[in-house]
Amino acid sequence: MERNIKLDITYIGSAYCGWQSQRNGRTVQETLAAAIEKLTGAYPKLHGCGRTDAGVHAKNYCCSFKTPSKASPETFVRGLNALLPRDIAVKSASEAAPDFHARFSVTGKKYEYYILNSKTRDPFREGRALHYPHPLDEKQLDRAAKAYLGEHDFSAFCAAGGSVKDKVRTITEASVRREGDVVVFSVAGNGFLYNMVRIMVGTLLAVAQGKIAPDAIPAIIASGDRDAAGATAKPQGLYLSEVYYD
Known about the structure:
By secondary structure, this protein is of the alpha+beta class. It folds into two domains: 3-96, 2-Layer Sandwich (Alpha-Beta Plaits), CATH 3.30.70; 107-245, 2-Layer Sandwich (Alpha-Beta Plaits). It is built from five helices and ten strands; from the N terminus they run E-H-E-E-H-E-E-E-H-E-E-E-H-H-E. Strands 1, 2, 3, 4, 5, 6, 7, 8, 9 and 10 form a ten-stranded mixed β-sheet that branches. Helix 1 (28-40) packs across helix 2 and helix 3 crosses helix 4. The relative contact order is 0.18.
């Protein structure tokens, strides 16, 4: 009988073309699946909790697969961590209910975007945060970000290429805080559109630059016009930080 195994992993996405397997680049999904094959002897059908773009990181990412392997959860953790490259780690493993699905069982996610707000670059944050050398008023941006809260049609915050027709999402958390020379945008909701968080960040940066009025975000949301929002922020500062299940 097959068991349904749930893995909680973390990864630095700099060397990968995102989570999902593709023909033209190395991905987290295929790297993890290859390690599972070495451990169990069979290549799994590996389900992820969602896509992450090239260069995006994950503090917490959930995936699941079915296997006849009798290996214990502890064996999966130890064995996979011995086989995986240093930029991917398995935090925990557990046997899930037969109907659990890492993607379709998700009830919400939380993302964080890190902005290094200093005049000089920091080599230790290269590829891990957006370097923005100009002044940022995190309190102003926090007030502006509150306009994202609630249920809205976020068409204005969806990049071209997104295939989802229903663009209504509910945002339950949207805040901006400063941690020393790093400004962090946190956003949680029941789902996110293609590049939605990065466009939210780009819009807040446009507010900081005086290109968009601090109180203009509700009108941008109502317009449904992608051109009215800010640019898409670079992927390197984006982290999937939490995945929520019932």
